[in-house]
Amino acid sequence: MNDINACNPKIIMDLEALNATNAQGCVACGRKFNLGDTAVLACGAWGSGSRYIHENEAVLDGRTSQYFERGYYMSLKAGT
Ligand SMILES: [Zn+2]
Fold this sequence. Notes:
This protein is of the alpha+beta class and 80 residues long. The protein is built from 2 helices and 5 strands.
């Protein structure tokens, strides 16, 4: 399973995106996405690759212009 569209880090959930993501749902909060939700392609503690999560659970790192899951980003900043 690959990312829906790695070139598009922020999407509004439409039916196509819902179908592609809701087998797993949002890996940050475990809930399903809803139509019209804003989701971003983020890196997180789940490991390999980036996944779509709700935008409000992600932090945009200004240096790399990449989204990170909030808790994961905090642990990175804490310097592990
Ligand atoms: Zn979520």
